[in-house]
User: Fold this.
Amino acid sequence: MRRVICVFLPTWPTDLWRRRHGGPPPDEPVATVAPDGPRRVLGAVDRAARRLGLRPGLALAQAQAMVSGLLVIPADPDGDAAALARLAAWCLRYAPLVAPDPPDGIWIDVAGAAHLHGGEAPLLGHLRRRLGRAGIGVRVAMADTPGAAWAAARCLHPEIVLPPGGQREALLALPLWALRLDRDTVSGLAQLGIDQVGHLLEQPSGPLRLRFGGEPARRLDQALGRAPEPLTYLAPSVEHAVRLAFPEPIGAPETLARVAGRLTAMLSDRLTRHGLGARRLDLVFRRVDGLDQSVSIGTARPSRDPRHLARLLAERLPQIDPGHGLDEARLAAPRVERLEARQLTASGAEPDPDTMAELVDRLVLRLGPGRVFRRAPVESEWPERAVRRVAPLSPATGVTWPADLPRPGRLLPVPEPVAVLAALPDAPPSAFTWRGTRRLVARADGPERIFGEWWLSDDEISATRDYYRVEDETGARYWLFRDSLTREGARWWLHGLGEA
Assistant:
């Protein structure tokens, strides 16, 4: 299924000028000016100028009368378009199918590639944060079709993912211009009382086609996915890429698998000659109707094993919709690393790192990148800070947990409050209630006192925790702690389950 991101840059010309000239501050209004016959009008305005009532198309003299001290810069549409193309090329790090949408947008088809970035919502958030940190105003939306994503980015939330098949409900209440119709068509339809997408859906197409032509129906069908909308994607200049053209269109799943195997063998030969291994592969199929289909895979370590790479691609091939047939396939390795020959050992004392990397790649492909990791120790007294997630094949840092301080097998993300019965204030609990169930303590060990990390926060200067390892009558083990005394007395919390 197609999944398209629309990146909308509402203040692209002024943001670009600010990046190039280092100012002025964001609260000072800036606008570009362009000739319009004998007049000079505003071409683009930044957020500060828009808040003051300025809009594109406003006469320059009127704008300067409305806003004193307005910074006016000459419009540079050719320079803006060239910069937009460079930004689109930068977006190739997210997916292999990227197309500029001048003058203020970019399309990214992420079907088959979103899993490399943790999923659709994390990818969208990462993209928006990266551009925002660069001082670029941006709104992003993802949908099944370019038209629905275009409309959602401009009319709905600044960062929104429409669910698969959800474009119809999202478009119903939007204004007609969200279908990318020209101003005259929108004005003419408004005179007939048709000013929302939902109103257009209710009308018979015949009379509207006679009066307004086929553009309204075509744009509506494209946005709803009833008509194809091919995009002109960038041709990335990837050094390590191979291509196959087919004399007749193909589409059978077993044929696609054979093509993937042949391409990986061809690419592996090329990588071997250069002493490289792939960390990411992009497989793009061209359909006979002009719609490209792609899948992407990543590897935990550099690899040029054609069997392994073909197997990873085969896991993603069901996402390819061949339509009426595919006439070309291209496999590229946009991310490569050095991979020198390695002497194999027959001792069997240590696991083969290549075999481990292949296992990790297959697990990541099936479970998702956020679900395959290992835990590494961190030098911290506070238990929840003493561990972090790292990549499964990350090298050891040399930091270890103290062997004489046992820790639970499972640490809760957030300590949960418990009600405790203790014979004495400093004694271990004799019973406690957690999640509505009372548990009698058969054995207990402690306390282990842990002090707050005062160098991180003033709030922890006097913080202490007394931890107890307890076992109930059923043999289940828990890790409880009593925090610092307050006016209400000490509070008890459950922090871990099981035994290390």
